[in-house]
């Protein structure tokens, strides 16, 4: 193998999930039994459940404890041993926000979302690793399997650029399984660590077409490379490989200004929709989501509010459901209960849904705001999430006046 270059990347403690366009949720099992390693707990706990996770180099990970206090009828509280010393009273407050949605038979369900930053030691220094954290309502009968589970994901990455051949590309190094080791799991077919290259140079990273296993070679521009001297904290080199694999071709660019990919499909009410041709004179949001997706549900209040406010001014939504087969009745009920009064395309093919495949969707929620007249993408990504959503739509509508 011949040395190509020393890769220089910057460690980002948080914001990685947005750069990656999604995340891979990990499961942390909760128990009413207090772990032996906990030295001190916050006062006033009345219905506590405990969990622990390990972060850091696979050879010597550090243990971090988490406690959720969930008294009936009162807000849940989360405490995290972010410095890993067993004392849950000397750590910064965590992010932990309640989101309420409609449940079966008119019930109200409360999902909590937030995150915490962990102090993780490595041989070459300490890093701050931010993890996203969320928990579904423990009384949600549709998610009974998660009643004793806290879900978490890595929000940290390494970001930089590399020159391969005559071109320079933006890259990310991601620890998708949130173990605190950029080398991923040892001895497994899928280590969970990814090296991402913006091959089509659209400013985004496709988690399927532009993501490569850190332990396997990849081919860009006709030359096969691989990572060498990769360590737990994410330092590595890129070398030309003595192996040869198939070249990765750039996927269609779907950044703002690019043409939306046209398609024809049937909605759940049996009507045929031709996208974006059907939306002449309108601004339409193509929304990839699913009823099982927690982050999608968290975004719903923003989307329904924007739709109710701006629909009369020319704003439309076309939902693309990634629900699994035989979930049509559940989808219809969920949409009605959550004021989703716009058409849905659903073929029951889960991640292989036809429109999702066309748009190279590998994480949700994912959305594209499209001008129905020009057929061009106006916005995507973070501009269509949270409080930014309504502002983005209003700006697009103003330009059509």
Description:
The protein has 401 residues and is mainly β. The protein contains five helices and 24 strands. Helices cover 12% and strands 37% of the residues. A five-stranded antiparallel β-sheet has the order 2-11-12-13-14. It has a five-stranded antiparallel β-sheet with strand order 3-10-9-8-7, covered by helices on one side. Strands 22-21-20-23-24 form a five-stranded mixed β-sheet, with helices on one face. Helix 2 runs parallel beside helix 5. The N and C termini lie far apart (59 Å).
Q: What's the short story on this structure?
A:
The protein is mostly beta strands and 401 residues long.
The main sheet orders its strands as 2-11-12-13-14
**Number of E-state strands:** 24
Q: Please give the alpha-carbon distance between the first and last residues.
A: 59 Å
Mean pLDDT: 93
Task: Please state the overall shape, judged from the principal axes of the Cα atoms.
Answer: globular
The whole-angstrom Rg is 23 Å
State which percent range the strand residues make up.
35-45%
The percentage helix is: 10-25%
Number of helices: 5
Structural class: mainly beta
Low-confidence stretches: none
User: What can be said about the biggest beta sheet?
Assistant: 5 strands, antiparallel
What letter string, H or E per element, gives the SSE order?
EEHEEEEEEEEEEEEEEEEEEHEHEHEEH
């Amino acid at each position: 193998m011949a040395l190509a270059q020393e890769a220089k990347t910057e460690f980002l403690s948080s914001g990685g999930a947005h750069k990656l366009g999604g995340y891979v949720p990990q499961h942390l099992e909760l128990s009413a039994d207090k772990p032996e390693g906990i030295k001190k707990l916050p006062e006033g706990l009345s219905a506590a459940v405990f969990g622990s996770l390990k972060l850091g180099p696979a050879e010597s990970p550090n243990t971090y404890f988490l406690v959720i206090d969930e008294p009936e009828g009162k807000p849940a509280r989360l405490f995290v041993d972010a410095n890993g010393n067993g004392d849950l009273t000397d750590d910064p407050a965590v992010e932990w926000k309640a989101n309420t949605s409609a449940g079966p038979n008119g019930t109200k369900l409360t999902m909590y979302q937030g995150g915490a930053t962990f102090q993780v030691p490595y041989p070459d220094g300490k890093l701050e690793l931010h993890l996203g954290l969320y928990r579904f309502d423990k009384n949600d009968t549709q998610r009974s399997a998660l009643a004793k589970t806290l879900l978490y994901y890595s929000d940290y990455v390494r970001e930089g650029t590399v020159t391969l051949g005559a071109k320079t590309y933006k890259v990310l190094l991601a620890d998708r399984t949130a173990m605190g080791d950029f080398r991923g799991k040892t001895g497994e077919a899928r280590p969970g660590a990814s090296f991402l290259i913006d091959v089509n140079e659209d400013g985004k990273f496709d988690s399927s077409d532009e993501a490569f296993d850190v332990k396997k070679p990849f081919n860009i521009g006709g030359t096969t490379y691989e990572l060498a001297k990769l360590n737990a904290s994410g330092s590595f080199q890129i070398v030309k490989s003595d192996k040869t694999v198939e070249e990765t071709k750039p996927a269609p660019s779907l950044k703002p200004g690019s043409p939306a990919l046209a398609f024809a499909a049937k909605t759940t009410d049996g009507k045929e929709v031709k996208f974006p041709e059907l939306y002449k004179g309108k601004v339409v949001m193509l929304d990839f989501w699913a009823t099982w997706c927690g982050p999608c549900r968290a975004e719903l209040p923003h989307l329904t509010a924007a739709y109710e406010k701006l629909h009369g001014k020319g704003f439309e939504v076309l939902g693309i459901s990634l629900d699994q087969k035989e979930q049509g009745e559940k989808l219809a009920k969920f949409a009605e209960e959550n004021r989703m009064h716009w058409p849905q395309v659903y073929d029951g093919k889960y991640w292989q849904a036809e429109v999702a495949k066309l748009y190279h969707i590998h994480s949700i929620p994912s959305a594209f705001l499209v001008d129905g007249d020009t057929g061009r993408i106006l916005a995507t990504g973070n501009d269509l999430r949270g409080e930014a959503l309504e502002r983005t739509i209003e700006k697009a509508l103003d330009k059509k006046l």
